[in-house]
Amino acid sequence: QVQLVESGGGLVQPGGSLRLSCVASRRIFSSLRMGWFRQAPGKEREFVAAVSRNTITRDYGESVKGRFTISRDNAKNTVYLQMNSLKPEDTAVYYCAGDSSGKFDYWGQGTQVTVSS
Q1: ∠ CA 117-11-52 to the nearest 5 degrees?
Q2: What is the 8-class DSSP label of residue 27?
Q3: Of 96, 82, 116, 81, which Cα lies nearest the Cα of 11?
Q4: Which of 30, 32, 45, 64 could bridge 98 with an S-S bond, Cβ 3.0-4.6 Å?
Q5: Burial (Cβ within 10 Å: 0-12, 13-18, ≥19) of residue 16
Q6: pLDDT in tens, 2-55
Q7: CB of 68 within 8 A of CB of 15?
Q8: Which residues does 42 contact at the CB level (< 8 Å), separation at least 6?
Q9: How far is Cα 114 from Cα 12, in angstroms, rounded to an integer?
């Protein structure tokens, strides 16, 4: 079992930036494809970004392309989500997830991001 712990959420004004972090409990992290998802109140969970084990492949949801960047540091068992030019519609709980077998089967507890003036 892998435990994932997110941090870095908070309140930010529109146009601002935040960086989320997610630390994994085990060294298996380097063998996982990692992703970020988000869920706003009353909405379905939405894919935000994912990064391959070797960082060569990065995918983004359409609504965050050009504004968010996913990265990882396998030596630190950590994946990051740099969020720039934040909008009120980015407000959501953000979840870190790990994919060991073609689907995301490890999940963190989530961190709240609120974009508001």
Answers
A1: 125
A2: G
A3: 116
A4: 32
A5: middle
A6: 899 999 999 999 999 999 999 998 888 999 999 999 999 999 999 999 999 988
A7: no
A8: none
A9: 6
- What is the maximum span of the chain, computed from C-alpha positions, in angstroms? 41
68 touches 82 (CB < 8 A)? yes
Query: Which is nearest to 35 in space by CA: 8, 53, 17, 18?
Result: 53
Q: Distance between CA atoms of 107 and 2, rounded to whole angstroms?
A: 9
Q: Residues with Cβ < 8 Å from 7, sequence gap 6 or more? A: 20, 21, 22, 23, 111
Per-residue DSSP letter, 30: G
Look up residue 100 and give its two tokens: 């060991």
